[in-house]
């Protein structure tokens, strides 16, 4: 029996990268896709508790949900999956999720939710507007094949998360990395609606990254794919060992 893989994303069910990846994985695994009905980027780990969720089956094994990426994984695992999936794969995201992006990313959050619920989460992100997405699909399929093998051997244990960022040049060179730090233009833009009432757009585009040796930001800048292992314990153990009061 093929292993089961649950796929989701934060770009929505109609993302071509999600659907191409799901099709590419079918020779390797039974693929279940549950993704938001619309764009939900930067949803982080939000979960819907105060309104109903609507689930629509668009094709066999392909579902849209009127919720967040984490909602999709939650419903996929607890309502739709026939058995425990070997992997929960999120992406391929159109745009990087590097460094401190992981705290905002719906893509990474969906993978983390899989790990929280006893699977292994793999978040896949591609350089924005990559000229050759087909090569990225091939690289991701190879990475998933390796992850499935390591899952079967026990080298990838329950609760692991891998955050993968591909530079979009088709490279198969990988580098295991730590999280870096991206820099953004901090901005709040004020506009007025036709009735003169103000509204706001927050956030600006990336302006660069800190030059941290061994980081994911440096890896993709060097043109290689970054693989960053994450874990669920975000305790500051250094401070815990030296409490302030």
How would you explain this protein's 3D organization?
With about 240 residues, this protein is an alpha/beta fold. It has one domain: Survival protein SurE-like phosphatase/nucleotidase (Stationary-phase Survival Protein Sure Homolog, Chain: A). About 25% of the residues lie in helices and about 25% in strands. The chain contains six helices and 13 strands. It has helices at about 15-25, 70-80, 105-115, 135-155, 215-220, 235-240; strands at about 5-10, 30-35, 55-60, 60-65, 85-95, 120-125, 160-165, 175, 180-185, 190, 200, 205-210, 225-230. The strands form three sheets. Strands 3-4-2-1-5-6-7-13-8 form a nine-stranded mixed β-sheet, with helices on both faces. It has a two-stranded antiparallel ribbon with strand order 9-12. Helix 1 (about 15-25) packs across helix 4 and helix 2 runs parallel beside helix 3. The longest helix has 21 residues, at about 135-155. The radius of gyration is 18 Å and the shape is globular.
- Oligomeric assembly: single chain
What name does CATH use for the topology?
Answer: Stationary-phase Survival Protein Sure Homolog, Chain: A
Low-confidence stretches: none
- Shape assignment: globular
* Biggest sheet architecture: 9 strands, mixed
Q: What is the straight-line distance between the termini?
A: 55 Å
| Strand order in the sheet with the most strands | 3-4-2-1-5-6-7-13-8
CATH architecture: 3-Layer(aba) Sandwich
Give a short synopsis of this structure.
27% of the residues lie in helices and 27% in strands. By secondary structure, the chain is α/β, with parallel strands linked by helices.
């Amino acid at each position: 029996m093929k292993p089961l893989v649950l796929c989701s994303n934060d770009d929505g069910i109609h993302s071509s990268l999600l659907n191409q990846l799901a099709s590419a994985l079918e020779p390797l695994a039974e693929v279940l896709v549950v993704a938001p009905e619309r764009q939900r980027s930067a949803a982080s780990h939000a979960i819907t508790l105060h309104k109903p969720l609507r689930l629509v089956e668009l094709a066999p094994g392909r579902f849209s949900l009127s919720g967040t990426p984490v909602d999709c994984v939650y419903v996929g695992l607890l309502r739709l999956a026939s058995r425990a999936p070997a992997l929960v794969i999120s992406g391929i995201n159109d745009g990087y999720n590097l460094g401190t992006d992981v705290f905002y990313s719906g893509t990474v959050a969906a993978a983390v939710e899989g790990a929280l619920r006893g699977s292994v989460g793999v978040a896949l992100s591609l350089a924005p507007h990559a000229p050759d997405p087909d090569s990225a699909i091939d690289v991701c399929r190879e990475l998933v094949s390796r992850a499935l093998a390591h899952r079967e051997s026990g080298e990838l244990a329950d609760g692991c998360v891998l955050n993968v960022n591909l530079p979009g040049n088709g490279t198969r060179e990988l580098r295991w990395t730590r999280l870096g730090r991206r820099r953004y233009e901090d901005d709040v833009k004020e506009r007025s609606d036709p009735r003169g009432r103000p509204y706001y757009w927050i956030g600006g585009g990336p302006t660069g990254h800190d030059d941290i040796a061994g980081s994911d930001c440096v890896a993709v800048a060097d043109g290689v794919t970054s693989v960053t292992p994450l874990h669920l314990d975000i305790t500051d153990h250094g401070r815990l060992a030296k409490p302030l009061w």
